[in-house]
Design brief:
Blueprint (H helix, E strand, L loop, with lengths): L1 H24 L4 H22 L7 H19 L4 H16 L1 H4 L7
Helix pairs in contact: 1-2, 2-3, 3-4
Length: 109
């Protein structure tokens, strides 16, 4: 239950911070706002095990699956072909797998 709480707070927190900066700098560009919110949710999902590592049994599995699902949803949102959708899911899983390396360097906009 603690992992779910950390994940929700992290995802929503990152999404809100990303959205506020997007609203301030690019007010009226609603497609950009949706994209920035989705990016914040993705980064929050991936960062949750790095924020509170003791709350997750297998953080690497959570990060890989979160990345793969995010890539799949992004591909479905852009209505890509089946091959491109599979590639996006694999690429998202790779980003999730490599999250311990890059998530520390994500600048909050």
């Amino acid at each position: 239950m603690k992992a779910l709480k950390v994940t929700a707070i992290s995802s929503i927190g990152f999404a809100l911070v990303f959205a506020v900066f997007s609203l301030v700098l690019y007010y009226g560009n609603w497609e950009r706002l949706v994209f920035v919110i989705c990016t914040g949710l993705f980064v929050g999902l991936i960062a949750a095990p790095e924020i509170e590592p003791k709350a997750f049994k297998m953080p690497w599995l959570f990060q890989i699956s979160s990345g793969a699902i995010s890539g799949l949803l992004l591909a479905l949102g852009f209505q890509l072909s089946a091959e491109a959708t599979l590639f996006a899911a694999l690429l998202g899983g790779l980003l999730g797998w490599s999250a311990p390396i890059w998530v520390k360097h994500v600048p909050i906009p």
